Amino acid sequence: MMNLMKKKRNRSSVVAFLLLVALPLTPYAGLTGCAIPHVPSRIVYEDPVNYVRLEEDRKVLPEWPQSHFSHPATVSKGVLRAILSGLKVQEHRVALLRWIQGEAPLELVFNDNEVTLLSSEMADALALAQYNERVTFYLSEPLTFARRTITSGGIYIQGTELHLLLGNWRIIYGIPTYGMIYDRRYPMRPTVAKGFDLFFEPADAVIPQQSSVLDNLLANSKDELVIDLSKVTTQERTPVSLPSSVF
Question: Average of pLDDT values for 155-162?
Answer without folding.
Answer: 97
